[in-house]
Amino acid sequence: MFNLSLFSSFSRNIGIDLGTATTLVYVKGRGIILEEPSVVAYVKKDNRILKVGNEARAMIGRTPRGVYTVRPLQNGVIANFEVTAEMLRYFIKKIFKRNQFVKPSITICVPSGVTEVEKRAVSEVAYECGSHRVFLIEEPIAAAIGAGLPIFEPMGNLIIDIGGGTTEVAVISLGGIVVNEISKVAGDYMNQQISKYIKDRHGLFIGDLTAESLKIALSNNSADSQNDYYEVKGRDRLSGLPIRIEMPKSELKEALSDSVKVIASTAKLALEKTPPELVSDIINKGLIMTGGGALLAGLNEVLQEQIEIPVFISKEPLYCVVKGTGEALENFDKYHRILNKTSRGK
């Protein structure tokens, strides 16, 4: 999708949306140049990395004995430091393959609720990959910038970013987060709910990739979104044999109904904690949805019904966080005060 070749070695400033499900990289002056799954395949015996990104994702559920696939980030934070470092090193090397001696300045997005220890882990990974300078930016802030919201104005901006590992709701004013709520009910949790529903209702075991493809089929920009039935292939719980079923679209929505309710409740909780003057602004402006989960068909309508204010899906919601990070890179003088510069080993 993105062109990795023939860009200037002077473009050493990069922004990374280090997501639980997907990693996106923005290079200053070039735009988004990399989008790959946050997945690594390795040999357990000697911890040797086999594949990273797209090639590793294709191996999920298909590996021989002794070979495993892992997502080194869980719920938006680093769960495996060494594997995350190897994954980022691979992506950076892929970007700067024409100049192996580039030491980039890296800006990485982090969830708004992470601890100082988790922030240090993220920055240390970037330094391990050869960065000479590391900045951190909170994901809701980056998403708001990418969605075109006036974050520095004295007014309430309500945003909900539904990623792979977390759903974050934030009220932003004067360049900072006033209120935020985080839920672990997000893309990965939805995949698990789909798998559980199909197992309980149809006695069919399906893989992670199958569950994810069914969720994506419900998204607004999917070619399958208009289908009334979806073919599901898996292993029968009783016979152990491979079978296929036709699953109604209504059942797939039912499988995700509880997840949608939790996301709506998270947004309501944030609003309940928001100062009245900012609530007044939000009533007029509405809520902006970003992240892959924003594309789930009908979610915006359910949210609007639950919180009783207008709900809008941002343009290209999948890329709002990385685009916002890129905007901060391109206009450093304007956005430097929202970037948290880190030091190695601190």
Written description of the protein model:
The chain has 346 residues and is an alpha+beta fold. It has three domains: 13-141 and 320-342, ATPase, nucleotide binding domain (Nucleotidyltransferase, domain 5), CATH 3.30.420.40; 142-185 and 261-317, Nucleotidyltransferase, domain 5 (2-Layer Sandwich); 187-255, Actin, Chain A, domain 4. 36% of the residues lie in helices and 28% in strands. The protein has helices spanning 54-57, 81-95, 116-128, 139-146, 187-202, 208-217, 249-255, 257-272, 276-285, 299-307, 320-330, 332-335; strands at 13-18, 22-27, 31-37, 40-43, 48-52, 67-70, 73-74, 77-78, 105-110, 133-138, 157-162, 167-173, 176-183, 204-205, 229-236, 242-248, 287-290, 311-313, 340-342. The strands form five sheets. A six-stranded mixed beta sheet has the order 3-2-1-9-10-19, with helices on both faces. A five-stranded mixed beta sheet has the order 13-12-11-17-18, sandwiched between helices. It is globular.
User: Structural class, from helix and strand content?
Assistant: alpha+beta
CA distance, first residue to last residue: 37 Å
**Can you tell me the residue ranges where pLDDT is under 50 for at least 5 consecutive residues?**
1-10
- In CATH's first tier, which class of the largest domain applies? Alpha Beta
Largest beta sheet, briefly? 6 strands, mixed
Task: Tell me what the CATH architecture of the largest domain is.
Answer: 2-Layer Sandwich
Radius of gyration in whole Å, from Cα? Answer: 21 Å
Strand arrangement, major sheet: 3-2-1-9-10-19
Strand content: 25-35%
Overall mean pLDDT: 89
Instruction: Please report the number of helical segments.
Output: 12
The percent range for helix content is: 25-40%
CATH topology of the largest domain: Nucleotidyltransferase, domain 5
CATH superfamily of the largest domain: ATPase, nucleotide binding domain
